[in-house]
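Q: My labmate handed me this sequence with no annotations at all. I'd like to see what the chain might look like in three dimensions before we decide whether it's worth expressing. Could you predict it?
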Amino acid sequence: MTLQHLDGPESITTEHDEPWVRVGQSTLSDSEAAATAATESALAGATARLLVVFASTHHDLSRVARCVDSLSGSAEVIGCSTAGEVVANGAADASLVVMALGGDGFSIATGLGVCEEAQLPGADLTSISLREAAVQAASSVNRVERREHTVLLLLADGLVGDQMEVVRGAYEQAGAGIPLVGGCAGDDLAMQQTHQIFGDAVYTGAVVTAAISSDRPIGIGVRHGWEVRGESMLVTSSQGVVVETLDDLPALDMYLNRFDAPENVRTDEQAFIDFAVTRPLGIRRRDRMEIRFVAGADFERRTVHCIAEVPQGGLAWAMTGDVETVLSATDDACAEALAVLGDTEPLGLVMFDCIARRSVLEEAGTDAEVSRMRHHANGAPISGFYTYGEIARTRGAGGFHNQTLVVLAIG
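A: Here is what I predict for the chain of 411 residues:
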């Protein structure tokens, strides 16, 4: 069953042993009212196995979590704050989306890991690293009742640490045989603090997971739509997410010159951030180009700061994109995810779409992107959010992406 309802419940009779995905959205400003409307709409009277919440920071996330959990029945609940929300009707801001997954064809187990002691409500635990938090959260793969197809869905705090550590920690638990998919929480571009939901509680500095095992196939598609600008640059010195030199020259100077940055971008921190959001770096993996979001710079040390690791000794490229390349990537990501399903019709699509891609598209292009998603979904419900980083590992050692669209197709 593939139904989507917006802004209010609707009574529907369902076959409870048939696997289904439904999505509810509310644009109400009151947090409890919005959470109630979206959850009841997604459940439509049925019993779910998993509820996933994507909510703007305009809402009180603690009230949202308590409300959704109270309505969840026996379902597991995870979620996160966003930089915008996506459903089949279009992209939104200041809204709340709930995806419900149910039926006898699914098995679910959820997990939580928190890497900042101060953010543990009502607990006094030793602080752990981001990687260790991911290991703890990803232990859900060891508890899920295994069916033919399994995927580990991760939602992480993209403003804490090197996000490749989330992928590495999850990989320790999942191994090569279980794909990883998900995204990093947002805070409506405030870039101050994001939130993760687990059950009826809200955290920061956390990784939450849902191990989803299904009798039906599950597909993942990954595309970014950015193109190389100019020659490669050797990363001659880097410390994790901080790029110190490129071709033995200060990384910030190389970056600014490669993009012909105007004078205000060279001297003003906020102007640099605004400029960099649509001008990422690309790093070469064995079979693909991974994108690294440039989140800031140190004007005294002349360094460039990314969201995830830029390996020393590797090659980096300046990357550019426009509306057409980004929209083409949307088509390709959807097609790649759906191809895995074969002849199985999708029950739903989940989108993890970088906020920087939305910045390139602007309003008209965003409408066009969602229209293309809707075309590929062919009537199946769509849910998702604009992220601060995307996770997709189906093969190889990488798996963390920036300024990329990741599509999860649930068969």
